[in-house]
Write a structure and sequence with these properties.
Number of domains: 5
Number of strands: 43
Strand order of the largest sheet: 8-7-11-5-4-14-17-16
Distance between the termini: 97 Å
CATH architecture of the largest domain: Orthogonal Bundle
CATH topology of the largest domain: Neutral Protease, domain 2
Strand content: 35-45%
Helix content: 10-25%
CATH class of the largest domain: Mainly Alpha
Amino acid sequence: MRILFAFGALLGFLVAWAGGEGCALCGRAHMAAMRHPEMHLLSFPSLIQDPQLTDVQHYDLTLEIIPSTRTLVGSCIMTVKVLQPTLNAFRFRLRDNFLITGLRLDGRPISFVRESITTVRAEFDRTYTQNEVFQLQVDYEGAPVSRGFGSIEFTTRSSGAVIVATLSQPYYAYTWWPAKDENTDKATLTFTLITPSDMFAVANGMLQSIEDLPNNRRRYRYQHNYPIAPYLVAFAATNYQHWSRSFTYNGQTMPVDFYIYSENNTASNRAAWELCIPMLRVFSDLYGVYPFIQERYGIYQFQFGGGMEHQTMSGQGGFGESLTAHELAHQWWGDMVTCATWNDIWLNEGFATYSEALWQEYKNGSSDPAALRTAMLNRRPSSLNGSVYRYDTSSVNAIFSSNFAYRKGAWVLHSLRWVLGTERFFDLLARYRQRYAYRHATTADFQAVAEEVWGGTMDWFFQPWVYGTGAPSYNWGWTTTTVNGKNYLLMSIHQTQSSSYGLYTMPIGVRVTIGAQTQDLRLWNSAQTQYYVVPVSGVVSNLAFDPDEWILKGSSTQESYRPGPPVIVEMNPAPGMVSSGVNQVDLYFQTPVQVSPSQVQLTGASLGAIGFNFAYDANAHRVRLTLNEPLKPDAYTIRVAPSVTASDSGLALDGEYSEQLPTGDGVPGGEAVLPLRILASNGDVNGDGCVDDTDLLAVLFAFGSAGARAEDVNGDNQVDDVDLLTVLFAFGQGC
């Protein structure tokens, strides 16, 4: 459905989203927002002071709401600690349609200067120094002007009842209350609301008291003892109907409160909202205990078409399951850990959108991969040509991009989970939460924690996926072959996305069918065209590319297999250590090659170049080196030149070797350097058939040396007592 919102002046239409599968703007309606005169004043960097120079510790906000005149009468006492050497003024935000009726510094009247539509500078009557704490009281009144998504609205419900509610995100707190208004400066909150007596006022934290006042008024006092960012401070007031449940986790119990319109107070709507209780358990299991467990969680109905994660009290315009999951997840990601700047909004919205999918995955008590896959496909962006990191923060449209901050942000986390593995992914979230709990974080902060878990730089992931635009597209093909009785999968992957998107480095999941069984493979992809030779347990009859949909792709197209470079799939004897008796070395390729004797070398660390007879069998794809005599104890290297080429593709050898065969990194070009170690395990170091003084002296002269050498009899890369004793115990044998 579509809902028309009035924000004092008409801003535009909002596309409402009331939950269900798929996320649109945190459940927020997507707005074709018009710019306001003050919009250019609200971009970061901060207009106030460097957040590090002052620390707001507490807000004590009192607000009387007068629906009949659509006005507010308020007073806010800010308790602030000075962090800079000296301070002579303090800036806060409050829109200039409000009359400031009083400004007091520690009880003393002071003057102020209106610097802009939104900014006030309080002029101190004395200098405050580092670590001093002052209280600044701002008394004000006036008719608020709503901005953004409806920062403060006086509205009539379908029943005829009046509702007054706020939604300050991203930077519109100034339209109804005075604050420093920085995400990077959180404070605790005392919030007192005075309303007509036929209204119930809902706000952050715990309700401490309700008092009746003269003239049919009522006072509600709330206390919130957890740090809160100013944009998350909120209230709503109407003739709510209320019910309460509880949530218990690890021995801690808190109330879960619900405030609903009478016209929507049905059993089905109550049950829909009460799903937040099993959600609290699932998210506490995944993310750590609910962040505000010492107070409460609640949901209240308000006129906005979607939802907003006001700390401890989410406002929702609907009853959809995913909407409820999204707003609840924000209590961890957005409220407890808040994006430091609006460029980093994906740290709020991408996390909450992915949490919708995690709820679908885990809601039945254990992981359901099929449910996760479906949930993520339902959250696929309709466009890929934008950045998750929001470079433009000049408008709510630019910040709250449903495609990029929400959906693509969720896919970044999904793919990061694939890269790290589920266990390490949730370890990352735990570390991130622990480090920035009740504070703020940037994308760079999150990347730094991810790199700790990964064990190295992750620019290769964050630069394209978060800071860049687009997504990879893949053309892929496969076939199989058999070499020396062993089966191999041959695969080619070609990235085809626009060159402006760059290349993506990702592990890619491949599921092969062999007989009645499936086998999952993980291929590291980092080049525009890359080739793979993978040992498999039998003949592959079918192949699925990224079958569990871990990677956000522009397209995925199967094509004919592209023949790749030759790789060495087998060596006999295998690379490594051999005790003795090697008089022949066989090298097998996955494909016929063009190779000559000059392209293969066999060298001993001590003995130098070793002669051999060379033979190539094209049908077997085999190079055979026949030695004139068995290899003596030494550390040998077999080198195959990168000039060896495949007969079918003409591509150069992919020869890089790292501890196991097949060789290669997936791209042509690379010498194969294969180790072969002949051990003198019988003590015959020089291989002359006799353990004698020569062998003993050789070990003694090399004693203490490190590295692969003939004198290292047991192959531990250290010539030591063990080697000496081996020779001594074998002394005289064979002589």
